[in-house]
């Protein structure tokens, strides 16, 4: 079944979409899109260090992503700069440093386009196993911190008062984002990972009234984007990663149209 490259790409993409959906919801709720972008940009430095140390790229990306997240938490405690300023500094510095390290490794041939924009059609059976194993671990971790993280998102003070440990939940959430970026880097690439996290969640937000239904719907929207993007890429001969994100954007725009039509229909009914 997994001998065909297109089938492997489909299975891998669906696995990523299922995991990215629930995490993307929290990114939307907590207004952390720029944080996700920063962690994604730092992934190139992780790639460079992994190649330099001859270890697996996912491990390098995860290690650097965690380091950047911890650096952000540490710098925020000084309070000298705003969070968005710190994110901008860390994001561009990590990306630039990654490019410098890659340029210095003249003895290693690095396909930057594959890492920047993804190469889902080249995923192997081992990649699929890592994606699903990592995805199960991430979902298990999210299930453990779901209640305190949701409480901290709604009201940090209330979460403190109830003894839910919002700081631990926030740190765990950052680690989960780092893990997802590590396992998705080969699918859509460094520059498009954040889009796959955010766009399906933003699409689901219009039609859901509970956090749980939004998380499930976001995953389903991501799956639709992966399937549509891959088939579109196959038919139009376009890059697979950007095609998946373009499909996600198309689904989002369709949701806007549906939302407007439903709203107008409801208003017309109420007048009668």
Topology (elements, then pairings):
Layout: H1 5-29, H2 33-53, H3 57-78, H4 83-104, H5 112-117, H6 125-154, H7 156-161, H8 166-188, H9 193-205, H10 211-236, H11 240-271
Please identify, by name, the CATH architecture.
Orthogonal Bundle
The biggest sheet amounts to: none
Based on Cα principal axes, name the global outline. globular
User: How many domains make up the coordinates?
Assistant: 1
Give me the CATH fold name: ABC transporter involved in vitamin B12 uptake, BtuC
**What are the low-pLDDT stretches, counting only 5+ consecutive residues below 50?**
none
Radius of gyration: 19 Å
* Count of runs of 4 or more consecutive helical residues: 11
| Strand percent estimate | under 5%
The sequence of SSEs as H and E is: HHHHHHHHHHH
CATH superfamily: ABC transporter involved in vitamin B12 uptake, BtuC
* Terminal-residue CA separation: 56 Å
Q: What structural class should be given to the helix and strand makeup?
A: mainly alpha
CATH class: Mainly Alpha
Averaging pLDDT over every residue, what do you get? 84
User: How many β-strand stretches?
Assistant: 0
The amount of helix comes to over 70%
